[in-house]
Amino acid sequence: MAIDSIKPINVADEMSKSFLEYSMSVIISRALPDARDGLKPSQRRILYAMLNDLSLSPAKAHLKCARIVGDTMGKYHPHGDSSIYSTLVNMAQPWTMRETLVDGQGNFGSVEGDAAAAMRYTEARLTHMGAAMMIDLEKETVDLRPTYDETREEPVVLPASIPNLLVNGGTGIAVGMATNIPAHNMGEVIDGVCARIGDPQISIEDMQKIIKGPDFAGACEIRGFKGIDSYFRTGRGSIKMRGTMEIEEKASGIAILTITQVPHGVNRAILQQRIAELVREKILVDISGMRDLSDDQTRIEITLKRDARPQVVMNQIFKLTSMETSFGVNMLAIHERRPKQMSVIDCLDAFIEHRREVIIRRTRYLLNKAEARAENLEAFLIALAHIDDFIKVIRDSRNRDEARTRLKAYSFPEKTAESLGILLREQASIIDGQYIFTDRQVNAILELRLYQLTGMERDKVKAEYDKLLAEITDYLDILGSEPRVLAIIKDELLLIKDKHATPRRCPILPDEGEIAIEDLIANDGMIVTLSNKGLIKRTPSAEYRVQARGGKGVRGMETRNKNDEKDFVEHLFSAQAHDYLMFFTNTGRVFVERVYGLPEGSRSSKGRSIKSVLNLGPDEVVAATQRLERQLDEDGNDITLTAKDKFLMFATRSGKVKKTALADFKNYRKDGIIAIKLDEGNTLIDVRLTSGDDEVILITRRGLSLRFTEDQARAQGRATAGVGGIKPVNGDYVIGMAIVNDEGTLLVASENGIGKRSPFSDYRAQTRAGKGIITMKCNEKTGDVVGASMVLPEDELMLMTSDGQSIRIRCADIREAGRNTSGVKLVSMKPGVTLLDIARVIPDDEDEILEDEAVDGEEAPAESTEDAPEESGSEE
């Protein structure tokens, strides 16, 4: 080299330029995944080598990893065998990848951080998801580029039939930047892609209803929604992950905390070391022992000291260890050959555009193949139609070249081709009305075999040609129709979802500060009571002990007011703490409250005024109540008051009934809304939840009943009065309503504590607005009917008396009898005390049975009666 060719340069400039080139090489070619297929170059090259060079499809046998690493390193990725093997191992670990791309056989490490065995001991092949990344690769769907030594070619990107960037996520540290993309549920992401295709303007809020958030390979709880919303919009956010622990109380009184899940990416062995370290440092002072019982599932048992408070220890573990950690989302990927911060919508758009390009290129490839084949079949059809002429031309030729030349000069009229059913394509050679063979067609004719000259073969050629023409038409339609391309993308994704999607592993729960109040309150059974003076309370159902039929009872609500006047319970029912309560008043309004929002009191406490809970008017009182069990949809949304197949059936004292859709009450207000229009002098007796196809029984004070089908009363709006249900006579009035259940019985109870259960089959269906039939013979011994309810044998019953006593009994202890009998004694009462109300109670396993307080029930004499006069008809 001549001295004159050496030029001085600035070292700082050269270093800056060289470092920039190195940085871009690391960013583009090593550390960051491509937004289209979600793979780094090393991952892409391993998968390509496994399929293209080694044919390791899911149906083939496993092959030594050393062979896979060797082929990848020698042909595509000359960066060292250890880095290639670690990448291969990573794609095969189910606790690392949400959908593994490699099916490993042998020791591929463990979630505790154990290293995989040497590559000479392990074997691998592609999984179905790994193979799906390369479907149609041979159909020129992606660009190819020369490998590092320019001896072969490798794909720039894989066709990627699944949105791998979001499904498996990815991590990488480049120069001056890093990426950390969380994994998501494949079924949700596919649904998100389809939703984006169907509605290109879909909002982030709507997309979050489809793609709930991260779904890591390691099952754990995800806490909070703010971080999810942040990275959905900007590509950056922080996700809080928390493991799960269960509390178990031993008979000895010692509590055990069992860790059943650790956050994704947390090493169980290191977690235990940290807990042990905190115990040694006397930071966790209530732990007496710990043992690891984990296998494929996590199970770490932590034994607490006898006087320890399990919830406190649990909170300390969450705070001081990696049982609660965070995942910093930074969705950085290569898009259009440059790093880009991408939101979830950006990732979906990049995948959709990539798949659109793949479908178009695949269709063009198939079109070219079909047209080339159709071109040959056209020559076959013409040759077979003039076989004698062609045989003569070939036979008279001295060699193949002369035969080719003579056939090339041979032509047919255009009409001859049309008569053979040949669709003249743009590629057909027509000169001066003559069909001229192409070089490809001449070669195809020369290669015809003798057996192809039979009539059957000619029919096969024509059938294949017609099929190809239909395919060509379809391919051209796809290429000319954007909606068809997008529809193909959706159909192929949904097919993969149906075959390979798995349920979500990581539930997403509110974080502190985002927690709904019901998530802070145990959903325990409650007994809600409302007295005649308007005192309301909720009491844990466990405070009411179960007794045998005929027991004397335990002290219930204290019902003396300030003026020493007797108060008594008018409404009593069982509910769960998260349930909704609808309070219907004598003025026809309805209020909606949650059970946990009611004042809590002991069994013997008075409760608080209902007016401190509901915004009642001066003369307004609660006439009826209805419990609505809280219901959630698959997304965790509360749908209790929006169910379209639920109705409320109203029954009034005068015998009118009304049916209204439950959804009509979804927009309730704190000050109440109109529920029913009541005539002057009429009051509301009961409200029941129905399905629209139920049967209803109305029961009157004098022991009459009427059963009718719900469809006899059409659904009406809230501000309506209803239609006739039963016609009470001689001062009688309705006291109760029940919904027919063939598995249960109708229980009626009288004011003197007599009751019975009768099968619903004893009550024939009638037309509403009649007088009804007898359900209980009322006399001086029984007194009038005070309550009626549908009960099941496993149900329990709460009875409340006028002196405030309560008793809880099993319905199975009440003898079943016909409707024209009087029944048996349900409760023993002092002289002058009467039974006020009955209610079904949710059984509680912790209830105590007090057999020593039970007395044998005395059965009242049965008296035969005849049905009361029946009157049919309807009244609108």
Could you describe the 3D structure shown?
Helix content is 27%, strand content 24%. It is of the alpha+beta class. Among the domains are: 244-322, Gyrase A, domain 2, CATH 3.30.1360; 359-479, Orthogonal Bundle (Topoisomerase, domain 3); 524-853, DNA gyrase/topoisomerase IV, subunit A, C-terminal (Neuraminidase), CATH 2.120.10.90. The strands form 13 sheets. It has a 4-stranded mixed beta sheet. The longest helix is centred in the middle third of the chain and has 42 residues, at 344-385. This is DNA topoisomerase (ATP-hydrolyzing). Keywords: DNA-binding, Isomerase, Topoisomerase. The active site is at 121 (o-(5'-phospho-dna)-tyrosine intermediate). It catalyses: ATP-dependent breakage, passage and rejoining of double-stranded DNA.
Helices, strands, pairings?
Layout: H1 11-31, H2 41-53, E1 63-64, H3 65-75, H4 81-90, E2 102-105, E3 123-126, H5 128-132, E4 144-146, E5 153-155, H6 164-168, E6 170-173, E7 178-181, H7 186-198, H8 204-210, E8 221-223, H9 226-234, E9 236-242, E10 244-249, E11 255-261, H10 268-280, E12 287-292, E13 300-304, H11 310-320, E14 324-330, E15 332-335, E16 338-341, H12 344-385, H13 387-396, H14 400-409, E17 411-413, H15 414-419, E18 429-431, E19 434-436, H16 439-446, H17 455-479, H18 482-500, E20 508-509, E21 525-531, E22 535-540, E23 554-555, E24 569-576, E25 580-585, E26 589-594, E27 608-609, E28 622-628, E29 647-652, E30 656-661, E31 673-674, E32 684-690, E33 695-700, E34 704-709, E35 723-724, E36 734-739, E37 745-750, E38 754-759, E39 773-774, E40 785-791, E41 796-801, E42 805-810, E43 824-825, E44 835-841
Parallel strand pairs: 8-20
Antiparallel strand pairs: 1-3, 2-3, 4-5, 6-7, 8-9, 9-14, 10-11, 11-13, 12-13, 15-16, 17-19, 18-19, 21-22, 21-24, 22-27, 23-42, 25-26, 25-28, 26-31, 29-30, 29-32, 30-35, 33-34, 33-36, 34-39, 37-38, 37-40, 38-43, 41-42, 41-44
Pfam families: DNA_gyraseA_C, DNA_topoisoIV
Keywords: DNA-binding, Isomerase, Topoisomerase
EC number: 5.6.2.2
